[in-house]
Amino acid sequence: MRIFASFKDTILAVRISDKALQDLEYPVVLQQVKEFCYTSLGKARIDAAKPFASKSQLLFELKCVDEYLASFENENRIPNHAFDDITSSVKKLKIENSFIESDQFLKIAQIATTVNFLKKFFKKFHELFPKLFTLSDKIEYTTVIPKEIQAIIEPNGEIRNDASKLLKQIRKDLTFVRGKINQSFNSALSKANTAGYLDDIRETVINNQRVLAVTAMYRRKVNGNVLGSSKSGNIVYIAPKETLRYSNEYNNLLYDEKQEIIAILRGLADTLRPFSELLEAYVEYLTHLDSIGAKANYAKELNAVLPEITAEKTINFKKALHPLLYRKNKDLKLKTVDQDIYLDKNQQIIVISGPNAGGKSITLKTVGLLQLMLQSGFLIPVDENSSTTLFNSILTDIGDNQSIENQLSTYSYRLKNMRNFLQKCNDRTLFLIDEFGTGSDPELGGALAEIFLEEFYSKESYGIITTHYSNLKVLANELPNVTNANMQFNERTLEPMYKLHIGQAGSSFTFEVAQKNGIPFRLINQAKKRVEGGKVRLDKTISKLQKERNRLQKSTDSLEKQKSEGEKIKEALIEKEQKVQEKLDDFVQLYDKNQKMLSLGRKLNEMFNTYFQTNNKKKLIGDFNAWVAAEKVKFAKKNPKPTKSKVAKKKAVEKKKLEQEKIKATEKAVLKDVVKLRKEKKEKETIIAEKKANYVFKVNDRVRLIDSKAVGTIEEIQKNKVLINFGVFTTKTTTNKLELVEKA
Fold this sequence. Notes:
Oligomer: single chain
Radius of gyration: 47 Å
Number of domains: 5
CATH class of the largest domain: Alpha Beta
Shape: flat
CATH topology of the largest domain: Rossmann fold
């Protein structure tokens, strides 16, 4: 669980243009997140996702997404919250004297039931999901809506018979008339069939009505209405007259039923109309939860986390990945190289240089996109120990900015963009510029780029730029809080490594790359002669330094790996030691408990042996009661009852403190003599043991078994076997198991 820095709820006033969103490919991210939405409303909410204007709202959203993501890893998965869009139904419901169809009412009931279930769930697990509980707690809990709907509408969408007395009677009449229709038709069918007026098929259905299939020659013999005939004209379809009378009555009842259903639905709409705003709140809540769930599922796919958000102006992205590149490479089963990017007051601007296709632009976009995603309420694919702050504006100038509509060249557009940058940037701005200064004469454009860079620097803006201009690399080296960086390049294979290295400018490897791509060596040499010698030497020196740095980096990585493995072994040993110590503590507790039980058992055994010898029940009960009383006193001393008054509590604490001090003093005083006493005791025990071992037992010696309290008399000795009389019983044993109590 991440910890947020304490923020005042201020307005961020985030300014970011649609062009910047396109530059950073933010709409593509939204398109991918939409795949995880349950509903069209959720997708629309994701489509509209922009950086939050309120810090407190942003932090709340991020925590909600983080809690939802955590639910995937625990047993309490968040219940399904899919729902049907009822927006148009609620709008119609608001209109006086209106009604909606029964299936729409069922959708409303389902939404109310879903919200109620979610509220119960988050209330039960509010400690696991505190922010999601807060979100659900804002919504009113009511069972009125589903109860009112379920009392009138069946789950299949039919209106219940008991929805009104009139509807119940109408449907009863419909059943009765339906029976009369069948009865009258069957009667006419039987008569016509007996008379031989019917064709072989006898009957059929026209316009949902049963009709007789009468042979054309007998059509005037059957009383009823002709509703049609066969293509050949041999069969005439006649509805019997009696059946028609009942059918008309049936149709009238159907009309009455429809009107009564409309009246019932209108009454239900009147009942639920006061809940219209609550239903809109339900839809808003479920839509919000749908978007949170989609963000969490997207985060799960990216292994994204919630970094720490600090009040201190710092970007510290560790193991940062570009989300779109990572997802694409994952599908292709390719590894994506992560980046460590750090910006603070001592490293305000980073100038990245190096060869083309080395990953400069993607590194630039990674920082911008991750910051934009985070400020829009998305978790980002970085290490969990990463942190960042919140910016008021994110400015970008990435890609070919030629404007055909405005008839602007690339350089003209970039100058116009720089003017906007200079107007908007401040100390809460993050700017990202790709190929800074290009589009004009290298010397003149480079000089102007220097001025722009110094202006951004003076305004304390944070930013990352990429460039090939040597003068910008030099300026970055001169300004205190501006740092050079480069994308690592394998000097042997001349292949990019896509890894950012901060602290040193990068060589463009212009001639090396040209040679690798098949440009004749003769032409490359001619080109070298036309370039100023100093620039070639500078580029060569930078290239050499990069090679040396790469070798050092490999050594550092190897040492870091060994250190990491050593730390893992150390942690494993510490863990084992803790487990052993825990087992030892458990064993000591068990041993103490067993010793106490043995002590109690010996005491009881001693009392019973005395009883067996003396057969004195009164003494046994007295000894037992006295023993219990003594144990009770001991227990009371060890477990004193807590005192209620403050004065008594204070005295008890002071008394306990004095007792502990006395105990410590006594321990110190006694500790010196303990070793000596133990030694003397051991010597005495050795002498006694030797005497006992050398003693020859005789008849009438009073003895007891080792580890026993009962004392008996030896009655008979045969070699090393003896017979002992304990008064109420006798037993046989060997002399090595005996202990002398008293000689004969």
